[in-house]
C-alpha cells in the first residue's frame, strides 16, 4: 500500500477533550482527495495528527494508526515526516511574515537532503505563482491574502513533497483567487503526480476538482465517495452545496432538516 | 573639551562591550523568539570557565577556545533539558525560566569556583592608548574591536541559509515544524551561539574588572541595549550599545561630581523607561506585522 492511510485515529486535547473519534481514511498515490466539514468538525485536527503538529497544542493521538507508504508515522516528529515527503500547508497561511518570499522558500529548503537544487525549486514555484516573483523583495507579512496563500503553498513545494495537505486554502480569499489557486493545485496534482489532501469548508468549489471526498462531522467520518456521487447526494446538496433550490422552510417537516447520516 | 572627547570615546568603547554582552540576548531572540534573561549569568559562567581552564595551566587562547566549545555545549544542554519542555507554553514561562536560571547560576557558579575576584590576564597590558591627547583604555579598545567583529559576523550569519532558517523559526514555530524545520535544534543552536558570544563578553569584561559574580550584573546594561536597539536587531545592538555606553559615560562624567556619584545606573534606567514609552520596539526592532 502506498499513499496515506489512517485507521481509527482518535485525538485528545489536554487529556480531556476528544476531538476526533476514530477517523479512518485513505489517500492513494497521485490522488486528490478532500476532507469536508463544518467548523469544529475535526478537519484541522485530522491534518495535524498526520503532520505531527498536535504537540504544541497539547493534543495527543490516543488510538489508531497512521501509515504513509510502509512507514508508521506515529513515532516520528514533524520534521521527520516532512523528510518522508509529507507536507502540511497550515490554515491561515502562516507565512514567515518578517522574511521576504525568497527567504520563506529558503527556510523550507531541505539543504543536503534535497534532491534538486534550491534555484531549480524556487524557479518552479515562481513559474506556478508568477505574482510572488514580483513581490520577491517585500516582507511576506505585507503580501495580500492570496499572495500569502500562494507563498504558503510554494514554500511547501520547496520541501519536495509526495503528499501535500492543504488546510482551507480558500479561507478569506475572493472567489476569483480561489479558482486560480485551485486550478494551480489541480495542475500540480496532474502534471507531477503530487498527492493532495484538501481540507475545505467550501464544498462546492472543492468537489469540482477532487477525485474523492470524505465528510467529517463531530469528529467522525460520516460519508465518503467519489466527488460526482457526493455532489448528487441530496444531503450534501442541501447542507454543503446550498443548491436545494428555493425551499419553503415552513413546508418541510422538522425531521427533514436533520442530517440523515447522523440519525 | 578633551575631557568630553575622552568620556565620549571611552563611553563608546564600553558601549561596544555592552553590545557584546547584549549580543547573546538578541541572537536567541532573533532565532528562537524567546527572551533570555540568563545572559548575564552566561557571561559570568563563561568568564569563570575560561579562568578555571587557564588556572589548570592551559594557555589563555586555548582556554578561550575550549571555553567557547563548552559554552556552546551548555547552550545545547539548556535547550534539551529545560526549554524543550516549554514548547506550546506562553512566553512568560520562558521569561520566568531564564530568570530562574540567572539567579541559580549567579549563586551556583561562584559557589563552585570561589567568590573572590579572580584575575584574568589576556596579555593586553594596562598602559592606556593615547591618540591626540585622548586617553583610551587599552582593554576597552580591544574589547570594542572584538565586539564589532562579532557583531559583523552575526549579521553575516543571519544572511546565510542556516541564519534564514533560524529567523523563520523565530517567526512561527508551528509553521516551521510544518515545513520540516526542527524548532528544537534551532533553539538549541541559538543558545549555543549565544554561549559563544557570552565567552567573548565574559573574557573581555573579566580581564577588565576581574572574574566574580558581578559580571552577571552586565545583564542590566545589556537589557537597556537590546530595548533601545530593538530586541531582534543585530544592528540595534551596535547602535544601542554605543548609545547606552556614551550616555552612560558622558552624563555621569559631569553629573557625578554634582550629586556624589553612581548616576550611571540611573542613566541606564532612564534609557529603558524612555524607550518603552516612546518607541516600545526599539530603534531597529521589528514591529509585528498585522494585516487588517
UniProtKB/TrEMBL annotation, chain A:
Entry keywords, A to Z: Amino-acid transport, ATP-binding, Nucleotide-binding, Transport
InterPro entries listed in its UniProt record: AAA+_ATPase, ABC_transporter-like_ATP-bd, ABC_transporter-like_CS, BCAA_Transport_ATP-bd_LivF, P-loop_NTPase
GO biological process terms, semicolon-separated: L-amino acid transport
Pfam families, per the entry: ABC_tran
Gene3D superfamilies for the chain: P-loop containing nucleotide triphosphate hydrolases
A GO molecular function held by the record: ATP hydrolysis activity
Coiled-coil spans in chain: none
PANTHER family linked: ABC TRANSPORTER SUBSTRATE-BINDING PROTEIN, HIGH-AFFINITY BRANCHED-CHAIN AMINO ACID TRANSPORT ATP-BINDING PROTEIN LIVF
Family that this chain belongs to: Belongs to the ABC transporter superfamily.
Protein name: Branched-chain amino acid transport system ATP-binding protein
Lineage: Bacteria, Pseudomonadati, Pseudomonadota, Alphaproteobacteria, Rhodobacterales
From TrEMBL, chain B:
Coiled-coil blocks: none
Keyword Cell inner membrane carried by entry: no
Subcellular location: Cell membrane
Gene Ontology biological process terms from the UniProt entry: amino acid transport
Transmembrane regions: 12-29, 60-78, 90-109, 139-158, 186-207, 213-231, 236-254, 266-284
Pfam (any one): BPD_transp_2
Membrane topology: Multi-pass membrane protein
One GO location term (cellular component): plasma membrane
Keywords attached to this entry: Amino-acid transport, Cell membrane, Membrane, Transmembrane, Transmembrane helix, Transport
Family: Belongs to the binding-protein-dependent transport system permease family. LivHM subfamily.
Name listed for the protein in its UniProt record: Amino acid/amide ABC transporter membrane protein 1, HAAT family
Organism of provenance: Limimaricola pyoseonensis
